[in-house]
UniProtKB/TrEMBL annotation:
This protein's UniProt keywords: Membrane, Transmembrane, Transmembrane helix
Cited InterPro entries: PepSY-ass_TM
Domain of life the protein comes from: Bacteria
Protein name as catalogued: PepSY domain-containing protein
Organism: Azospirillum melinis
Transmembrane segments: 12-36, 145-169, 190-211, 336-357
PANTHER family assigned to the protein according to its UniProt record, in alphabetical order: BLL7967 PROTEIN, IRON-REGULATED INNER MEMBRANE PROTEIN-RELATED
Amino acid sequence: MTNRTIRVWTLIHKWTSLICTVFMLLLCLTGLPLIFHDEIEALTAEHTLPPMPAETPLKSLDEAVATALATYPGERPLFLSFDEDRPVVNVTTGPGARPPVSQMHISAIDLRSTRILADLNDDKGFMHVMLRLHVDMFAGLPGELFLGFMGFLLFVATVSGVVIYAPFMRKLSFGTVRAGRSRRLKWLDLHNMLGIVTLMWVVVVGLTGVINTLSVPLVAYWRSNELAAMIAPYQGKPVPERFASVDAAVRTAMEAAPGMRPQFIAFPGVRFSSNHHYAVWLKGATPATNRILTPALIDAETGAFTDMRSMPWYMLALRLSQPLHFGDYGGLPMKILWAVLDVLTIVILGSGLYLWFARRRTAQDHAAAPGLRTTVGEAAE
């Protein structure tokens, strides 16, 4: 690699790093508690289930929906989701088919009694703030897309850092930290070494984060193509005035897909369904398939089965990117590993800023190896 090529890659690494570093620090800091969101919510949850006999029969989903609607008169059902390990359903209601989040109510309902355990929209505490900062910085879709672009710049910075790290490594053994030299040179070596150690994790988490920020346009594309083909015979039909039984719709969907179970239900008119259908989103029952969702469309007026199709590749990528991003598919050991790598990434980002400011302050051009005027660490600065 010529010196000119190294200079070009150095400039790419320098400016992509500088542009995205502050935002990546924000994402790493907010992502750290989000990795353990299940554990934190379990410790702080106030809507625990009251004790009841184990053989207590469960009420119907229709009764749970009726409870939510009675609590918020004038609203209509939007979504219904199922807790993984509790007899609890979460019913989302709102004044219209697609209201802003601020106008929605999410009721956690005990299926043994149809008692509302909590209004989940009331949760505006620490975890809510962390999630909103991490997802869109309280800026909605523009914020999501902006953070997605920052994630792409992180990927470019990582790749360019590897390219210019290769000639640097010819002169030193892997992992060398010249602690006996200047503070700046020590942090340069740590920055380079930690960057290579966390390389694959940063690439995976960065790219899956970019995919997650594209959820709104990807769902819109799915609606205009795959969903439009599934509901073509119903084109132009209005939202039914009365909905068929939710329980019956779930049974019909599960009969069409033996071995699968419902993850959530989208009511007619919402983003994940059509104007005339329940969309019963089913997942596999095995660890290998429970992250893959398949929508079954059930006529919301008659309760008849309409269609069911596997999700296209881009929707599968969106679905599978979420557990990879937060490391929540391998239990607590995986979460701990993700947290350690997150902290190391914070050190890398912080050290890159330190090196850049130190170089500007001293106005010196140190070489990490004989014959090389520019190094990966200087690029990070």
